[in-house]
Each structure stands twice: as structure tokens, then as C-alpha cells.
Amino acid sequence: MVVIDNYTGRVLAMVGGYDSSSSFNRVTQARRQLGSSFKPFVYIAALENGYTPISKVLDAPFVIDDMSKDGVWRPTNYGDKFYGLSTLRLGIEKSRNLMTIRLSDLVGLDKVSQISKELGIYDDFPLLISSSLGSLESSLLKITAGYASIANGGYRVDPRMIDVIYDKKGKIIFNGDTRKCQKCKINFDNYSSLSRLDLPKIVNNTKKVISEETAYQMTSFLMGVIKRGTAKNINVFDYQVAGKTGTTNENQDAWFIGYNSEITVGVFVGYDEPKSLGKFETGSKVAAPIFKDFMNKSYLKAKPRPFNIPDSIKFINIDLFSGNPSNTDFITESFKYNFNFDKNLDLKTDDSDNQLKGFY
Q: Considering the domain boundaries, does residue 328 fall inside one?
């Protein structure tokens, strides 16, 4: 498990294993398939390229030409069920494999690759369609930092173990926090005459990878994962929390990455020599409860503030399943300011074609 400050990248807590005699740190050194914990970054690529929370993608069987798998690959959803045209929100909340694969093909794997590399999740991202389902390996530290970037409004997070180093004379020779403070030399003797605009402000000068609107929309999706999706078993919080489950083939790796407005927590459960954790041992069952217990014990006295909502976000009441405006049995969906139902051309797959062509 690892805990990261969303804005500074400070590693606040880390458990690299349960054997104190081992020097192998599973947070920083172990590389495992990310499974469904990677899916949000596919949907982020879509939201950054014209898709909306109510854009629909076909959830149905298809086959992919693949010579490494006896000529074809037939991916399935968990439980082998299919749900037809579904909104992007449902794709994330229910962790739909087939929607994610189709979406990555529609948006372009090159765009998914670019975002994942700019956030530091992967150093290399082969343009393989299976990569969208988290088949590539990374570390718990890197994927947790990727989620912290969503939490902070889209800025890249580079985890750091050291805050500051002084020389023997007290001079700073290394400062891990590269952010700048505007107006920090303010004279507080005349505090009563200062306006809000005069007060000091910490400016994040790290790389902006995701727009703040897209980052908030994904946070809204991931809050839905806990409210009614694959992590609803930990829906016990009295403050805003977002997160995503992840499970790899044969239940060899179980993940949960979650965050509030202050910290991001990554949890991984798995054997050093990959083998099944058990038939029903998913990220939801074994990793998410660890996250829940940590968060509950970390906020016994003070609760974190709600997530920041960009001024350019507007809210519309919609039906969760159809995506249409609704005033009964609705959820409140977040849209970018220029969204208009009357002018919106919903992006979706051609439901007459359920096969992706080509070698991946």
C-alpha cells in the first residue's frame, strides 16, 4: 500500500511487504499487470477528445484477429454478460471490458498511450488493443501517482520520498516541492485591509496533462464506482471519495486505487510469484476493504473538503442508463460548459459492426 499527497507528490505512507527481513519493496519495485485499474485513462482520453459522460459505446461480443491466440481473441466482460449501447459513465462504474476496448479503438490507442506516458504510468506503451485493459505492467507507485493527477485537477505527480535537504549551515541544497508561492512575502500587519486576491497562493508549476474539466468528470465517474459500481461494498464514507477496482486474469492481481481531495491511496494484493488469489478474490473483495479501513482510521477527527469543481463545469439531471435529461430517478451529471443537448452529436460505435479488424 502507498499513500501520496495529491498536490506535492509526497509519499506519506508506504508498506512494501509484510516481511521486514526482505529488501524487496513491492510498491516501487514490483511490476504487475494493472488490470481494470488502468481503464480510467482510456476514458480520460475519450473525454479529452470530444466524448461526453453520456456518449454511448456498444457493449457486445466481438472477435479480434490475433495470431498469438490461435488466430482470434474473444475478450469478455466479467460474468460473460453484455448490455448493448451504454454511456461512458456506466462503462467505468461497471468496469465493462468490451466497452473499454471499443472506446480505445474509437479514440485511438495513440491518444491513450500519450496520456499514460505523460502521467508517468508507463515508460513505453505498445499500441496493442489489450493494453487498454491493463495488460501492461507497471508499479503500484506509478499507477497511484496517475490517480493523484486526476485528483489534483490534471497535473502530473512525481512521487518523492525527500522533502528538503539542508547543508551544515542551514542552507537548502535540495527542495522536493517545486511549487511556487505567489505573494508569500505579504505584510500581514495590515491584514484587515487585504482582499482575498491579495493573499498568498501556491501555484502548481508541474506539467498539466489533463484539463481540469476532464479530471473532474473522471472524479465524478469514480465517485459513482463507490456509490453504485464495482466498489459499492465500501460505500460507507460521509465525505467525498473516488476510486476504481482492478483485477487481472485468473484473479492473480487485485487492485484498488482511491482518493479524496487531499490524498491518493493505492492498494495491491497478490503473490510475488503470480498465481490465483482464489476464484472470487477480486479487487472489490480483497483490495477495496483495505482502502476503506485505512481511510476510516485516517479521518477520525477532521473530514477532507469536497472535491474542487471547476467554474467551467455545469450539472444536468439525467437518467443513469439512457443518458437523457430526467427529473425523476436521476443522477446529476457533470458536463463541460459548452455542452448542449440540442447540439450534441452523441459519439458511439456502429452497432451493426461488432468486430474490430487487424492484428494487435
A: no
* 93 closest CA partner among 177, 213, 181, 219: 219
Residue 295: alpha-carbon gap to chain centroid: 17
Name the pLDDT band for 68 (thresholds 50, 70, 90).
low
Q: Identify whether residues 69 and 137 lie together within a single domain.
A: yes
Asked if residues 256 and 290 have their Cβ atoms less than 8 Å apart, the reply is yes
End residue of a domain, out of 292, 308, 324: 308
Question: CB 217: neighbour CB atoms within 10 A?
Answer: 28
Measure the CA–CA gap between 4 and 323, rounded to whole angstroms. Answer: 34
Q: For residue 320, what pLDDT is reported? A: 93
Q: Which residues constitute the domain of residue 27?
A: 2-158+208-308
Q: What is the pLDDT of residues 22-61, one digit of tens each?
A: 889 999 999 999 999 999 999 999 999 999 999 999 999 8
- Residue 342 confidence (pLDDT): 67
| Residues 185 and 83 grouped into a single domain | no
Query: Which among 219, 236, 254 has a CA at the least distance from the CA of 295?
Result: 236
| Residues 55, 88 contacting (CB under 8 angstroms) | yes
